[in-house]
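USER: If only I could read backbone structure tokens as easily as an amino acid sequence. It would mean a lot if you studied the pair and described how this chain folds. Here is the record:
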Amino acid sequence: MIKYRISGIVILLFFTLVLSGCQEAKQVGGFEGVPVSVYKVQAGEISEHVQLFGKIESRQSVTITSTVPGTVEKINFGNGDQVQKGDILFRLDNPDIRSSLDQARSSLAVAKANDRQVKSGTGEQEIKAMEQNVNSARVAYETAKTNFERLEVLYQSDAISLKQYEQAKAEMEMAQSKYESLKHQLVRMQNGPDQETLDVSRARVNQAYTAFMAAKRKAEELTITSPIQGYISHISVNEGESVNPGLPLATVDDLGRVKVDIDIPESMYPYFKVGLKTQVTVPTLNKTYEGTVAEIDTHANPHSGLFHVQVRLDNPNHDIFPGMTAEVRVQTEEKSDVLVIPVDAIWHDRGENYVFVVEDGLTIRKRIQTGIRSEKWVEVRSGLSQGEMVVVDGIHLVREGDRVQIISDINK
């Protein structure tokens, strides 16, 4: 198939001067005709496109907020700076949170030290000291017991009062209880800690560790990092300012992938499919990129009656920024082996389309029916035949029956 491209044609003569000259020539003879460029009608390919406009947006934009209250201690980046995932954006300070962390760390250290002591058992010197305590308690108990037995005999013979008797009995029982308790402790010290003691000690360590980790996570929230790679913008705080949870601090945009949101009327809906390739032109950059239709709403906006479409495109050089205007160009129809002529060859008159055909050096005006069109070409459905010559440049200077001079053939 033949694909056509119109190159700029410079008409060397000023048509207005030519026309006036032509009038004089007609009067004096020797007139060669109005200079025009022509196009020989041929069959070729043509495609029609629609153009829609939208704003560039980043496909992933994250609002940075704080989860804890604090004072902004440090801001590490400025608006427009590129950041990597995990980079520290802000450092906050909160004395209460840091104090809680120190306390939790200290409590964990104490619990671990006690646990180590329980696991290691009792030393030899401590056991000897406990043995001495047991012996002392035994002697005290035996003494209290002997005294009680003596007083019990006296009480039975009414030699002492009930109060004296009960006091001696209580002293004996207290001495016995202390003796039995110390004996039990000595046995535990000699045998080492039992499983219950170990479990209790370990539980205390776990509890202290849980409290420490909670305090540590809270302190880590004072360091705010970027969740994605991108460019930082809209920094809304200064160093020294107080912030509260949920307050927006900045925005990070992933510029590696951007999108254009457009709205289309119902008549265009059939031309859009997910996966459809499009041309996206950014006038500010004077560049055209390949885009892909990623999302199409299945419900029209109840207020505008339009359908929302999202076109995505890669931005590897990070030269497309959110807010830039984008022109999305989508092919709606393509035809081959049809008659096509330049758009500039058409003369519009009262809602009808006409061309001037050159035959034997004279112009003949013909009405035509057109089909789809591109930026520079239009399909001719009827009114012309292949091989006919139509006027392009100079069309506004001729009328039907005028003699013309062909100075350029666009086909060549």
In short: Residues 1-29 have pLDDT under 50 and may be disordered. The first helix runs from residue 15 to 28. The chain has five helices and 19 strands.
